[in-house]
Amino acid sequence: MSDMQRFKRVLIANRGEIALRIQRACRQLGLETVAVYSEADADSRHVREADVALCIGPAAASKSYLDMEGLLLAAKVTDAGAIHPGYGFLSENADFADAVEAAGLTFVGPTGDSIRMMGDKITAKRAMRDAGVPCVPGSDGPLPSSAEEVRAIALEVGFPVIVKASGGGGGRGMRVVHSVDELDDAVVLTAKEAQQAFGNPTLYLEKYMQKPRHVEIQVLCDMHGTALWLGARDCSLQRRHQKVLEEAPAPGIPSETIAEIGERCVQACRQIGYRGAGTFEFLYEDGIFAFIEMNTRVQVEHPITEETTGIDIVAQQLRIAQGETLDMRQEDIRMQGHAIECRLNAEDAATFMPSPGTVTRWDLPGGPGIRVDTHVVSNYTVQPYYDSLIGKIISYGATREQAIARMRVALAEMRVEGISTNIALHQDLLADPQFQAGGVDIHYLERWLAERS
Ligand code: ADP
Questions:
Q1: pLDDT digit string, tens, across residues 147-186
Q2: Distance 156 CA to ligand 1 centre (A)
Q3: Distance (Å, rounded) from C-alpha 308 to C-alpha 312?
Q4: Nearest residue CA, atom 2 of ligand 1?
Q5: Which of 136, 166, 203, 283 most suits a substitution to test ligand 1, by most atoms within 8 Å of the C-beta?
Q6: Cβ(160)–Cβ(193) under 8 Å?
Q7: pLDDT by residue (tens digit) across 214-264?
Q8: Atom of ligand 1 nearest to the CA of 172
Q9: CA pair distance 172, 309, nearest whole angstrom
Q10: What is the dihedral of CA 82, 109, 396, 255, to 10 degrees?
Q11: How far is the CA of 390 from the centre of ligand 1 (A)?
């Protein structure tokens, strides 16, 4: 089998907890790893444990983790055969995926063409509609330049609407519009922001759903036509369109409903020739799923699906990239129990401002059903240059109640000193009766925060 491998050494083009997560999967599969790091990340944990480690530039991501040529050169000099992009940075950059393959290396992810199609939310929605996936109603394509025509579209869709950047991501580049008088200004402003942030001013518009939940479907597809869905995750607890706490499965949604939408997703994957791991994101309201976008990479919240299915998603990404066939069928996938993930951020508890600094104490929780994915160790310095995510606590239980109980104990055990974190926020959320009842909508957390302040 090992002689058939396309690659034996993987360059991990990322940092933080996901770099360590990918490194673990590589090592378990007997693959060597190359760690690349910025000057700010020299003493990171995965750098120490890599077979080869290479500094690729200064702290600024644009000069290190986003430097395509630097990364390709690093792969060449270290003799890596594949590049795993993780999430964020270059993970959804179609040109990078193409450049990796053009250099004769394997990109651990879908083809550049798939990434391109899904990275443009307008083409993504079109492709999904064609593949029979239900979408949020809206402008069927880019907004025209005439303000009058935009108004006509918005009135037909019906207010409130949400104006979104076709090239947007990370919860940025969208604006809710409640009435027709606000529309012209909102379009001009969002287009300007989209141009600045994503280099593309193209906008589209959707019905703004009032009380939806964010429910997403994880898929895995090999290069030989097998496409599987691994159940749903509920990521409704968000602040500023950013996920805070996720759980699997989505509470209260019948498993037949999930199976139905899961089948639609994998059918779409087969139709577009998708390969690798991916996530279909939906808004769910009144029993109806409406597609918003697809992420063509591993997601931060992938561990809760790993816990409920027993499938190592990152190892499967690597196996798929080797050209192997998925060694399971849909009917073999058992979704069991319940998992919750709390994202730990280095941020001020009241203002949510990033709180970089040196972690002087870092005591992790443990016990049955508790998993912690983190790159942080005692005396680690959280850098100001990157995302404030410092780790994830994942709890698993036979029931949702057990997963919640285990998470509450884990959060109480966790000790962090030297920096501020959002642990107290998670504790308060888990104690909240509405959260405990399950099925809160995407605006719940912001309403809850507003009431507390
Ligand atoms: P991004 O790529 O920036 O994450 P998404 O399109 O996935 O953007 O949307 C992120 C979040 O914004 C969703 O999870 C949801 O909370 C909110 N959102 C997006 N579209 C709508 C909509 N049509 N109605 C209501 N909320 C929406």
A1: 999 999 999 999 999 999 999 988 889 999 999 999 999 9
A2: 20
A3: 11
A4: 169
A5: 283
A6: no
A7: 999 999 999 999 999 999 999 999 999 899 999 999 999 999 999 999 999
A8: 3
A9: 32
A10: -150
A11: 24
- Cα 291 to ligand 1 centroid, rounded to whole Å: 10
pTM, rounded to two decimals: 0.96
214 C-alpha vs ligand 1 centroid, how far in Å?
A: 8
Q: Positive or negative, the Cα torsion across 151, 153, 157, 163?
A: negative
The set of protein residues with a Cβ atom below 6 angstroms from ligand 1 is: 136, 162, 168-172, 206-209, 212, 214, 238, 241, 281, 283, 292-293, 442
Distance CA 360, CA 114 (A): 44
Q: Give the pairing of strands 276-285 and 288-295.
A: antiparallel
- How far out from the chain centre does Cα 272 lie? 21
What is the DSSP pairing of strand 213-221 with strand 276-285? antiparallel
Nearest CA owner, ligand 1 atom 22: 208
Secondary structure class of 106 (helix, strand, coil): strand
Choose which residue among 120, 236, 241 to substitute to test ligand 1 binding: the one with the highest number of ligand atoms within 8 A of its C-beta.
241
**364 burial type by CB count under 10 A (0-12 exposed, 13-18 middle, 19+ buried):** middle
The catalytic residues are 297
Q: In the Cβ-directed half-sphere of 298, how many Cα atoms lie within 13 Å?
A: 26
* Ligand 1 midpoint to CA 162 (Å): 9
ipTM: 0.96
Ligand 1 atom showing the smallest separation from residue 243 Cα: 14
DSSP 19-55: HHHHHHHHHHTT-EEEEEEEGGGTT-HHHHHSSEEEE
User: Which of 187, 245, 209, 233 lies closest to 134, judged by CA?
Assistant: 209
Buried residues in 25-55 as b, exposed as e (16+ CB within 10 A): bbeeeebbbbbbbbebbeebbbbeebbbbbe
Strand, helix or coil for residue 163: strand
Going from the C-alpha of 250 to that of each of 234, 254, 313, 438, the distances in angstroms are: 5, 9, 19, 9
At residue 395, the 3 state secondary structure works out as strand
What is the per-residue pLDDT across 361-371, written as a single tens digit (0 to 9) for each?
Answer: 999 999 999 99
Closest residue to atom 15 of ligand 1, CA basis = 241
And the tokens for 90?
Answer: 């270059």
